[in-house]
Request: fold
Amino acid sequence: MSKKNKIKDPIDHYFRSNSIQVINIFESKINNDVVIKVKVDERYVKYINRWKINSLDDQKIRTKRISVIHEFAYFSFAVSKKDIEKVYEELKLFVIYQNTNHSLETQIITNYTNLATKKINKYGNISVFPDENIQALLGNVRILKFGLSKDSSDYFIKVNLNKNIVAQIINWKLVSNNDSLEDVLLVTRKMVTVGNQVQITLSFPVTKIIKTTQYWKLRLITQNESGQESVTIITQSNLITKLKLLPDGYRYAVSDHNHVMYPTILSNMDFAIQTRITTLYEMSKYVKKAWLTYFSIIIFLPFIRLLNIWVFYEKNANSAHENAWITFKKMRKLYPNRRIYYIINSEAKKSINLNNDNIVLLGTWKYYVILYLAKVLLSSETRYHVLGDAQFHRSMLSNKLSKKVHVFLQHGMNGIKKVPMFHYGHGQIDFLIAASNWEKDVITHKWHYPEKQVFVTGLPRWDDLNIQNLEKGVITFMPTWQSNLADLSHKSFERTSFFKSYSGLFLDENFINVVQNDNLEVNIVMHPKFEQYKALFQKFKFLNIHVSADLNYLLSRSEILITDYSSVAWDALYLNRKVVFFQPEIRQEEDNMSIFNEIGTVATDKNDLISAIIKKRNVNFENYDAFFEPKTDYNTVRVINTLVENEKLFKLHFFTYLHRKLIKRLKK
Reply:
């Protein structure tokens, strides 16, 4: 842990001290590439493993060493313009290097004035390869209107911009962040000039995108007099549009069987078109039930504070094994007379065989009554999971939920993955527990929560971990879910770098020899969203595949946990198990990327991983208790007692959380 304050390794010191310089970025006219040139001290070139740009696949980055001049080596990276357009964030350059201890480290390169192929202007719209003159003309571009065309089945978007930009426009498109989905070309239906502004009405067939599950954004491509193209993602809308779409734009939805499409304002106030599959509990019969319940109990709403009802639930209200369920069970025993309830759907209740008077089934009359009258929501997910689907923000009920107090009981210990939606100011969380003093420091300094809103209690699910259950030779893989893998066909999934990395490992002769010679038990725990691809992993005969598994039992048995960026690594370390991070695709998951090497071994390819497994099996277990102080065996009781002691802090909100964000934005 001392690495954070003092870097002793001279190789680490060089790479972390901003000594590498980005000296030039330009657009190649020959092959439509973006070229980045970098200057590196020649003495440290031999330690470089590879370079990364955001989350782009390695094969999309063409790297070459140009020359050595006065003890400096110069590198050049070429990336196709089309690939960079798919990165909807500021571009970041990373170097992966090997330090004195032969461990791979990842460092972001910050020594440049501006990675100028991409920038966000003062109005919030994102531009790629910006031409300064065109940027000045674009100015305050705003989305004004949207809706279904009256004379056709097309959907329209009306945009306001400077009229002098019209001559430079090449086309408008809708784009998603999924490479497998084609961009949708928009048709210009109408242009009306108002002073020095022009209002352009664009349209597209609803059928082009409604069967997808994505957020779609508006992209404008322009060209200056010298032929250079500029790409701008239009994300900003006027105040009237924001007010129409807050807290949710579902009332403007277009449906097609079990699919739905509607405009929405994202949590960062960006405009987007959302497409997804409709959920069970947004069917008309449930929406009507929610409204009827509201009118029936409206006279009791002023007594919410007095009733002091607490509601527990987990992901999409379809499970009972996480921190929320463990806390609820214990609290029922400690405080049997308090009004506390657990929300779950009927299918999950039957499969788990739950029997408790305070279990409330999703979609029942009692469910709606309890939710309207509840004061505090306690969960291991965001507040809207109590609706049965986190995507579903519809009806009066969702508005009321956003005004209630939300206590985040954590899904796992943080400090590995970036989770901006949980940060202070996002509006999702009011209070949260921290697993340790170390994690509280992360939450207060990186997530920016006031200390009084963070309670150090430990995680309830740690009470179910059993350090004595260790079985030598048990190895468990737990890869995290990646949104770019959603809704792919089996053939498309097999072509992804994710599947290629794991199939390449499981088919590798050296890996198979290690498994057979050491008689290893190899498990893989798949995220529920991976279940549709389960059959593709079944061809690896020695692999035990788990989707809905008793994770605590499996972790307790495992000698080694192998994950990429999952917080489950902390659970393994809590048990003093060994951890390997298999990261063939480098992502900037944490501001301090060295955390991975502090708590485990990083492997970036199958050969590294095989070596790491052999090495880990031949070393003693390491103690990481410093990350978990104060460590006890009674985490659940600590959580309950802390919440009860601080419940006077739990105050209801007057506005919905998106309205609160809009008010804050307007004040600025």
